[in-house]
Structure formats: structure tokens, C-alpha cells
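Hi R.,

As promised on Friday, here is the backbone we talked about, encoded as C-alpha cells. Could you run it through your design pipeline when you get a chance and send me back a sequence?
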């Protein structure tokens, strides 16, 4: 499963990218807006932090296919070929995805609330489809169940499109989809950190440090002892 940071805070991205095996960063207009900065400046800075080889997702804004395609071309020209254009999974979006595929521009069908939206975006040629787990839950439906159904549909129809599950509330949801074998998850920094936040883990590490210090001295490492 590919793991992405769903955020545009450059300090958080720098920190998490240095620590975790992260495949890239996903953004949307609301996430960019939270920074209070010029969205293009933020995206350029994120690209510098994560490097040319990591995936960066940025959304096309216009509501019509022609406008989406224009945005997509401009974004890829600015941020490089490893940039995935998020296109809403609606009829104008399907048209844009199809044309962008012919041009070799990678896309992600986003704003996915239903399995058939995902299927149509995939059929149009999207590289990824992004169902919104938590938002679907909040509508009274089973977000995790819908993501699994989308994964099943893509598998049954032997489509290359990957599921990029989004809108997570907690690490348990990520675990459940990871165990199911979905293609990718994109999570806010606090959800990524919660994947390994556990008092038992901290306690075990503290015990190792304490026990070693008894025979080696405070704050001594193996390298210190070996010399
Ligand atoms: C990703 O494609 C979505 O834009 C994002 O994950 C939505 O998350 P939210 O429901 O927390 O806003």
C-alpha cells in the first residue's frame, strides 16, 4: 500500500518525510487554503521538499472538462511529470480524464462517494480513484465497506487503476484497508503518527534504554562502547 501525506503544511511534510516511508503528498483546494498562502508557492515548496521522484497530487479547479485540462497541463508543466491531477469524478471530469490519459498526464478521480463513480473514473483512464472514507461514514453509509467494494470492482474487471483511500479519521480505518490490500491511503499527519502511537511500544523502548544504562552508563550507545 502506498502511503501519502494528506496535508500542505510544509513543516509537517518535512518532518514526516524525513521519518516515515512516505510515497508522496496529496492536496486539495481546501487543504491548500488552510495554509493561508499562495497555493502555487505552497505546491512548489512541497515539490522541492519531496523531490522530483515522489508523487504530488494537485486538483484541477474548473468545473468544465476544457478548464480542467488547461489546469492539468499547467500544473504538470510547473511541478513535473510525477504530479497526479485530481479531477472530480463527475461527467465533465470523466471527459477530462480520458483526454488527459491520451496526453500521458496522470489523474486521480477524486470526490468519490459511490462505487460507480470510481468505476467510471477508472474506465475513463484514471490512475487512482479517491473515495472519502470518513465523509461517507458521516452520511450514514459504510465508508470502509464502500472502499472495499471499489477495490473488488477494480480487481474483478482487471483494471490497473489503484484505490487511493482518503478522508481518514483514525489509524484503525487505515489498518483495515491495508489488510484488505488496497493500493494507497492518504492521511493527515496526526493519523500517520497514530499508526505507531502506543504506550506499550514507548515502554518497551524505555526499558531497553534503562537496562543498557545499568551496565554501560547513562546515555551510552554501542558505538560509544566499541570506540
Ligand atoms: C483527498 O482526496 C481528499 O481531498 C481528502 O482526504 C478529504 O479529507 P477530509 O474529508 O478530511 O476533508
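Update: got your reply. Pasting your designed sequence below so it's all in one thread:
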Amino acid at each position: 500500500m502506498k502511503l501519502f501525506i494528506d496535508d500542505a503544511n510544509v513543516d509537517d511534510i518535512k518532518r514526516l518525510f524525513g521519518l516515515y516511508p512516505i510515497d508522496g503528498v496529496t492536496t486539495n483546494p481546501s487543504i491548500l487554503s488552510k495554509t493561508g498562502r499562495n497555493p502555487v508557492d505552497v505546491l512548489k515548496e512541497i515539490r522541492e521538499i519531496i523531490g522530483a521522484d515522489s508523487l504530488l497530487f494537485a486538483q484541477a479547479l474548473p468545473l468544465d472538462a476544457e478548464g480542467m485540462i488547461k489546469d492539468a497541463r499547467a500544473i504538470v508543466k510547473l511541478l513535473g511529470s510525477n504530479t497526479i491531477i485530481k479531477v472530480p469524478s463527475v461527467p465533465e471530469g470523466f471527459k477530462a480524464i480520458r483526454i488527459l490519459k491520451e496526453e500521458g498526464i496522470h489523474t486521480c478521480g477524486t470526490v468519490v462517494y459511490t462505487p460507480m463513480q470510481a468505476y467510471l473514473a477508472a474506465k475513463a483512464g484514471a490512475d487512482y480513484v479517491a473515495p472519502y472514507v470518513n465523509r461517507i461514514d458521516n452520511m450514514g453509509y459504510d465508508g470502509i465497506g464502500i472502499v472495499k467494494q471499489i477495490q473488488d470492482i477494480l480487481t474483478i474487471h482487471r483494471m490497473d487503476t489503484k484505490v487511493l483511500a482518503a478522508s481518514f479519521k483514525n489509524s484503525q480505518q487505515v489498518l483495515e484497508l491495508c489488510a484488505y490490500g488496497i493500493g494507497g491511503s492518504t492521511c493527515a499527519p496526526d493519523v500517520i503518527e497514530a499508526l505507531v502511537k502506543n504506550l506499550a511500544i514507548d515502554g518497551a523502548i524505555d526499558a531497553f534504554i534503562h537496562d543498557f544504562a545499568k551496565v554501560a552508563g547513562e546515555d551510552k550507545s554501542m558505538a560509544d562502547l566499541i570506540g
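One thing I noticed while checking it: Residues 199-216 form the longest helix (18 residues).

Thanks again,
M.
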